Structure formats: C-alpha cells, structure tokens
C-alpha cells in the first residue's frame, strides 16, 4: 500500500496510472468527471497492451454535464484502437457516482488499483492537491472491481 498525492512530479496520480497501464491489458476507470480530451493522455503507445477499457461515469440530465461529457466521451471512442475494435470499450452511467476507483488487470490477474479523491481530469490527475491509496491485495481489488461493475 502506498499513498499517492499530487505534491510532486514523481508521485502523482497521472504517473501512477500510466505506470499501471503499461503493465495491464484491462483498465477500469470510475470517475464522475472526465478529461475533455482522452487523446492527450491515451496516445497509441500508452495503450499498447490494453485490450479492454471499462468506464463508469455520470451524465446528469438537464445540466452542463451533458454538453461537456459528450466531447469527452467522443474523444475516448474515437481513439483509433477503440474505433477499430482493437480495444473493447464499455461505458456505463451511474448518476449517483461520487467515488473514484482505478483498477488494472493483466491476463485476468490484478496488477494494482487506486482509490482516490482524484477525478479522471487533468486537474485531478496532476494539478489539484488530491490524495489516493494504492491497492495490491487481490481480495480488495476483486471487491473494488465488483463495485466498479455495479455487481
């Protein structure tokens, strides 16, 4: 277990998430707020080993969220590897969502996870003063994944 914060460039959420993605083939992202353009983080080389991305987010009715989120989700599904079907991408909505959980798997084994205050935004991943705790214990990761999938 390790505490992740955004107080330094070598110990921030973005660095941890990119490191875990490089070791993974499945990525689970649970975050109410999303970066405007996924292409800025998910360049082709970042997603080299990824086969599946699961995203749970919000899409609040009658709010600016509907306008902002459309551009964000569009940028995700238009990533070439997702658009071509090389990477399977599943998006679910949960308008009561508040928690932020990131889980990383490789060959059906858990690589790691992060429970955090950081949304999946540029501000959340490396600008704001956010805190998170890494998870390495398989039982905790399995429980987090079930929560992520809404099981």
Summarize the structure.
By secondary structure, the protein is an alpha/beta fold.
Characterization of this structure:
The chain is of the alpha/beta class. Helix content is 30%, strand content 26%. It has helices at 13-21, 64-77, 80-83, 122-127, 138-149, and strands at residues 3-5, 26-30, 52-57, 88-93, 100-106, 109-116, 131-135. A seven-stranded mixed sheet has the order 1-7-6-5-2-3-4, sandwiched between helices. The protein is globular, with a radius of gyration of 14 Å. The two termini are 25 Å apart. The model has no long low-confidence stretch (mean pLDDT 89).
The biggest sheet, with number of strands, parallel, antiparallel or mixed sense and barrel status, is: 7 strands, mixed
The span between the termini is 25 Å
- Rg over C-alpha atoms, rounded to the nearest angstrom: 14 Å
| Number of contiguous helices | 5
- Coarse morphology: globular
Structural class: alpha/beta
Number of strand segments:
7
- Order of helical and strand elements: EHEEHHEEEHEH
In terms of per-residue confidence, which ranges show pLDDT below 50 for 5 or more consecutive residues? Answer: none
Helix content: 25-40%
How is the largest sheet built, in terms of strand order?
1-7-6-5-2-3-4
Average pLDDT for all residues: 89
Beta content: 25-35%
């Amino acid at each position: 277990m390790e505490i992740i914060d955004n107080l330094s460039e070598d110990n921030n959420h973005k660095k941890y998430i990119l490191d875990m993605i490089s070791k993974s083939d499945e990525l689970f992202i649970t975050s109410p707020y999303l970066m405007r353009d996924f292409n800025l983080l998910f360049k082709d080389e970042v997603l080299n080993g990824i086969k599946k991305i699961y995203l749970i987010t919000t899409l609040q009715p009658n709010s600016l969220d509907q306008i902002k989120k459309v551009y964000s989700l569009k940028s995700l599904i238009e990533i070439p590897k997702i658009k071509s079907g090389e990477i399977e991408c599943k998006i679910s909505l949960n308008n009561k969502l508040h928690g932020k959980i990131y889980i990383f798997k490789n060959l059906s084994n858990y690589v790691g996870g992060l429970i955090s205050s950081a949304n999946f935004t540029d501000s959340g991943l490396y600008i704001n003063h956010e805190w998170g705790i890494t998870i390495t214990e398989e039982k905790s990761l399995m429980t987090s994944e079930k929560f992520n999938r809404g099981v």
